[in-house]
Design goal:
By secondary structure, this protein is of the alpha/beta class. The protein has one domain: AF0625-like (Rossmann fold, 3-Layer(aba) Sandwich). The chain contains 13 helices and eight strands. A six-stranded parallel sheet has the order 4-3-8-7-5-6, with helices on both faces. The protein has a two-stranded antiparallel ribbon with strand order 1-2. The chain binds uridine-5'-diphosphate. The site of uridine-5'-diphosphate (UDP) has 14 residues, from helix 9.
Length: about 240
């Protein structure tokens, strides 16, 4: 059994990677629409600023801590999260499960051609996986109707939405009554990594909880986002203190 840990009003599932993967497998065997979110510190900070977004994150059926900052913050409340569950790794576990169950995936997001290249990489790696469809992530709101219709008519079991936060979470939540997939997961820049456009941090950085540092070195313009990490940790610290 696992519980939820509340950090600054956002409820995070206290699961390790294996438990998260089992939950996803269960979702695929069910018949409901499950929203999967993988917030890091910057995303949780955004949810503190925007209470509507907080509600969106809290509506997720599985919400795991993508960032080490979230794991650190959980300790202040006396309810430590088991481990960081990186969104990219969880997405790959989901692809593994989908492969063994012969499921189909719709890839939505990234610049023109990224979803297609990610699809090629996935089918090379997982022979049993079906790509139901792909589309870039740059569209106006009046195009959403046709995108929903396209995803539904593709009969995809899983939607990977790589639109960046908070756009992907809003999209997944806004269309929850209409989308027919079993799992809709927000995967940020993961399709860029799959497509080989962006290099993932070496395992050393991942294990040391320093993936953010590697990304900052590669893309210095991320400094504004990285500055959110200490701010988030400080906010969580004082919030936890006020509750203890
Ligand atoms: N993106 C998109 N549509 C948009 C804005 C962003 O498809 O309107 C894509 C963008 O091309 C990139 C991803 O969303 O592939 C966002 O990546 P980011 O690095 O911000 O995500 P992170 O992994 O940090 O959550």
């Amino acid at each position: 059994m696992y519980g939820k840990v509340e950090i600054l009003g956002i409820k995070i599932d206290n699961v390790d990677m294996d438990e998260a993967a089992d939950i996803l497998s269960g979702f695929l065997h069910g018949n409901t629409y499950s929203k999967v979110f993988t917030p890091n510190s910057e995303i949780l900070l955004e949810a503190v600023r925007d209470r509507e977004f907080e509600g969106i994150l809290n509506s997720g059926q599985l919400v795991v801590p993508d960032g080490i900052g979230v794991v650190v913050a959980s300790k202040f409340y006396g309810t430590p999260l088991k481990e960081r569950v990186a969104g990219m790794d969880l997405m790959m576990r989901l692809m593994n499960i989908a492969d063994s169950q012969g499921r189909s995936i719709y890839l939505l997001g990234g610049r023109e051609g990224v979803a297609e290249e990610a699809a090629i990489k996935l089918t090379e790696e997982y022979g049993g996986l079906k790509i139901a469809g792909t589309r870039n992530g740059y569209f106006d709101s009046d195009e959403e109707e046709s995108i929903i219709n396209e995803i539904n008519s593709s009969n995809a079991d899983i939607l990977l939405a790589a639109l960046g936060a908070p756009k992907q979470e809003r999209f997944i939540c806004k269309h929850s009554d209409r989308l027919k997939v079993k799992i809709a997961m927000g995967v940020g820049g993961s399709l860029d990594v799959l497509a080989g456009k962006v290099k993932r941090a070496p395992v050393f950085y991942q294990k040391a909880g320093l993936e953010w540092l590697y990304r900052l070195i590669k893309e210095p313009r991320r400094i504004v986002r990285v500055m959110g990490i200490p701010k988030f940790i400080a906010l969580a610290f004082f919030d936890a203190k006020s509750k203890l």
